[in-house]
Amino acid sequence: MEAKSVILRNVTKAFPGSIQKQVNAVSDVNLVIEAGQFATLLGPSGCGKTTTLRMIAGFEDITTGDVLFGDSRVNDIPPNKRDCTMVFQSYALFPHLNVLDNISYGLKIKKMSKANIEKKVNKVLTVMNLNDYKERMPAQMSGGQQQRVALARALVMEPSVLLFDEPLSNLDAKLRLVMRDEIRRIQKELGITAVYVTHDQSEAMSMSDQIIVMNKGRIEQIGSPQDIYQRPQTKFVADFIGTANFVEGHVLDIQADRLQLHTPLGEITAIKHGEFTKGQRVTLVMRPESIVITQDKRNVARVTKSVFMGQTQEYEIELDDHSFQVTISNPMGLRGHQVGDLVSLDFPEQAIHVIPA
Ligand code: ATP
Question: ABC transporter domain: from which residue to which, for each copy (predicted)?
């Protein structure tokens, strides 16, 4: 198998009915996923993730635009000829076939020789740790085992592109973590291109080379997990990924690498990323773990909520009519702040990310 890039050029999908409402399920999506990369489509329910994935797979017609695998336009190629396989949330195993037959099925349809099928299936059984389950029927296996069979069935086809539609949603929390690592390990080992759909941000963060955040059929931002979390380009991305505190303000002054900002909390300095103009209205984005609680009484803030979360203590702290979410890691044995305590909040410049309002 040879990994291929997946390219979407001005891809739009209008379902019948949605045309009258002038709302496209997917609108003018442009995207390049390099060969061998793990890319995740992430966004709230109804944002167009699954429709995008299904257009890549060929299960859904493309209204306008092009989908390419490497240099080849695949718009008119049927799903079974597209050199990609999909792993579904529901596993979609054949209930009347045992594990071995489920995995061999696609190769038999391709009329591959018996010896060749055996070789390929045995390899995949080993990679997926399924050697002891060959004779089992799907109903005799746990959800996690069934999902491993579904993955094995996709891998044995040696596709250039592997597609995943929320494959872990039916598994319990612990197994989801194990399967995340498993999928990522195999994808890296085989060097396959993967496109993964989820609405679970921690899944996207922990697995992806590239995250594509979608909102209402459009791409909001494409970037590495670090980019998306630390440098969100829009309020939507900042809000959807993790927790964010927002403060509105405007630019007072611009130095080479710093912004002087006027905010309801007073003047604040932030590191400059991107282009801004004097007077421009901006939104300051601050993650809960980057705000510092001090006792220096520079500003008086009141703790209104304090929740012990084990590793961390999560606070809600009110300062000048603003309520801030603040997360502090919990040193063992130390008592955290309590509701009603008066503290002070510090906003270090590297903790503030500024976006146009
Ligand atoms: P979820 O996480 O809930 O699965 P999603 O991001 O995958 O959501 P899609 O399933 O791609 O979203 O749906 C995008 C939009 O297209 C939604 O508004 C949905 O109602 C609409 N849609 C999806 N399939 C069809 C269809 N067959 N006919 C008409 N509209 C559809």
Answer: 6-241
pLDDT tens digits, residue range 204-222? 999 999 999 999 999 999 9
Using most ligand atoms within 8 A of CB, pick from 51, 53, 197 the residue to mutate for ligand 1. Answer: 51
Tell me which residues of the chain have a pLDDT lower than 70.
1, 18-22, 333
Q: What is the pTM of this model?
A: 0.89
In the reported structure, the alpha carbon of residue 95 is separated from the centroid of ligand 1 by a whole-number distance in angstroms of 28
Residue 260 identity: Q
pLDDT score recorded for residue 18: 53
Q: Whose C-alpha lies nearest to ligand 1, atom 24?
A: 51
**301 to each of 184, 337, 350, 353, how far by Cα in Å?**
44, 12, 21, 22
Helix/strand/coil percentages in the chain, nearest 5: 30, 35, 40
Q: What domains does the chain contain, in order, with CATH numbers?
A: 6-235 (3.40.50.300), 245-356 (2.40.50.140)
DSSP code at position 349 = G
Rounded Cα distance, 240 and 282, in Å:
19
Q: Is the ipTM, as predicted for this complex, more than 0.90? A: yes
Spatial strand order of the sheet with 301-308 comes to 292-294, 342-346, 301-308, 312-319, 322-329
